[in-house]
């Protein structure tokens, strides 16, 4: 059966109330200063940046985003029997919350649901860290070694985990269909996966509101809203896979 790889970016989660970053109404365009809150060097050097970053994460957590129709459509594709793997640039965990097996999701940029100590590398729950913020700790430290805590995400200025990137690359080279959805395909090395897929014989389908640098390589580009376009596309792919 056809192996389908899905590279998902921020655009797949906007219907869940999570803003994208680089779109016309993106967070970085509206508030360039906000980018400092997720830039490693600024975060590590400035307690005020860390305080603001924790407040931002507390506000995001309070929204309690839920999976939308696009996330559920990906899970439905898996449930149909079509082999599917998701490579996501998102840190929201909504693919898993939408019903997709966690082992079939490669989180390129980590997860916002965990925190990691920058000194001893111990991991713990984001919910526990935010509870400490709620209780009055502006910049909660690691309970084990006293080091600086950060979300278990890849900040600007940090490298991707090479093992995670290797997993994503292996999936990309093995798939027959590669769907890039809700991503500008501008952030490397994630964006280059689209080109790698084509080089290894996959059909590239781009579902995104704005043009991307890889549209010329795509067999199909879809500009319709993701919440309706992706379910229709994946239902079509499932039918082709069964055929």
Automatic annotation (TrEMBL):
PROSITE patterns xref list: SIRTUIN (PS50305)
Keyword Disulfide bond appears in the UniProt entry: no
Coiled coil location: none
Protein name: protein acetyllysine N-acetyltransferase
Organism whose genome encodes this protein: Streptomyces nitrosporeus
GO MF term (any one): NAD+ binding
EC number of this enzyme: 2.3.1.286
Annotated Deacetylase sirtuin-type domain residues: 1-240
Lineage, opening ranks: Bacteria, Bacillati, Actinomycetota, Actinomycetes, Kitasatosporales
Keywords tagged on the record: Metal-binding, NAD, Transferase, Zinc
InterPro entries: DHS-like_NAD/FAD-binding_dom, NAD-dep_sirtuin_deacylases, Sirtuin, Sirtuin_cat_small_dom_sf, Ssirtuin_cat_dom
